[in-house]
Amino acid sequence: MKNLIKTTLFALGLGLASSAVASNYLMRVMIPNQPVTAAPAPELLSLNPGVVPISGETITVNGQYFSPTDTAQINGVNAASSVSSATQMSVTAPGVSSAGYVPLTVSGANKALDLIYEDSTPAYPVGAYGSGPWGAFPGWPAAADSADWLYANSGYNSAPGSTDTASPAVIETNALTVDGSYVYDNTTGADIAATLYATGDNAFVALLNGQQVLYGDNWDETFSGPITLKPGNNLLQVESLNYGSSPNPSGLIAAVLSASGSVLFETNSGWVVGSASAN
Question: Cα(264)–Cα(256) distance, rounded to whole angstroms?
C-alpha cells in the first residue's frame, strides 16, 4: 500500500511539474518578448518664414517626431533652437554678411529645407529697355520691353573694374511676380519651366538658388537660357561688372518668361541691391 501511495504521489508530482512547464512554455509562446522600437527620425515639412533678412530672424520649423534633444543646423553650423512640441521647433537664424540660399536641417532629419537670406535696399531703375545709353539690341523678347535697366543709385557711371551696384554688388530677386515682391511661393507643387533673358554693362553672371545659370560679356547682346523654378521660394541673383578706361554707364537688365512666352517677372523698382557676390 505504501508503495502504491508513493507511486501515485510521484505521478501526481510529475503531472504538476509537467503542467507548470507547459504553462510556462505557452506563456512564452503567447506573449513573446517585444523588441525595443527606436523613435522615428524627425521629418521636416516647412519653414515659417522661409525668407529672412540678412540681419537674422527667429523662424518656426514645422515637422513631425521632434524630441527635446533635437538641434538645428543652418548651412552646416549649429543654430540656437528649442523644441516646443513634437511638430514644431523654434530656430534662430543668425545674421549673415551676404544674401544667399542655404540649407536648414535638424539632427537625424530625413531632409533639409531651403532658407533664403534677403537684402532690402531698393535698386534704382535707370530706364526701360530701349532707353539710352544702351538702346535696343538683338534677341530681347518683345514681351519684356517694359523691363528696366537697374543700378544701385541715381548715378549709373561706374569706374572700370567695379560692379554696377553697392560693393560687392548683387541685384537679386526671388520673385515670379511683377508687383515688386521678391519672394514667390510656387504653390503649384510642380517645377515651372522658364527662360531667363539678361545682359549687363559690361558683363554679368546670374545664379538661381545658388547655382550659376547664365553668363554674358557683351552689353548690347541678349543672353538667354532655360531655368527651372522649383515649388516654393526661388532666389535669383545677378551681378554685372563694368569695363573701360574711365567711369562710364553700367547696369543690368533681366526678364524671366514662361514656356508660353508670358513675363513671369522682370527687372523693376521692386528688385533690391544685395550685399553678396555672385562670382
Answer: 6
The three-state secondary structure class of 160 is coil
Are 175 and 118 a contacting pair, CB within 8 Å?
no
Q: How many whole angstroms separate alpha carbon 118 and alpha carbon 180?
A: 14
Section 121-148 average pLDDT: 91
* Pairwise CA distance, residues 159 & 164, whole Å: 9
Q: Which CATH superfamily is domain 121-274 in?
A: Galactose-binding domain-like (2.60.120.260)
For residues 204 and 198, the answer to whether their CB atoms sit within 8 Å is: yes
Pairing of strands 88-93, 57-64: antiparallel
Structure letter (DSSP) for residue 161: T
Q: What is the band of 235 on the pLDDT scale with cuts at 50, 70, 90? A: confident
The x, y and z cell numbers of residue 239, run together, are: 551681378
Statement: 43-118 belongs to CATH 2.60.40.10: yes
The three cell numbers of residue 263 are 513675363
Closest CA to 267 of 202, 173, 185, 136: 173
